[in-house]
Amino acid sequence: xxVPKKRTSKSKKKTRKAVWTAKADKAAVEAFSxxxxxxxxxxxxxxxxxxxxISK
Length: 56
Fold this sequence. Notes:
1 helix, ribonucleoprotein
């Protein structure tokens, strides 16, 4: 017969959520930084076609 699991404490739940949120915030900041460097032309590690026209 199925037995319900024990409830997770509020502190553990908040800690896990805080870690997840911090990781997401860090990834967003890094992505924004990379995008900004590409758009300003200061990027030295990204290679991309500047004028990529799909209709050709």
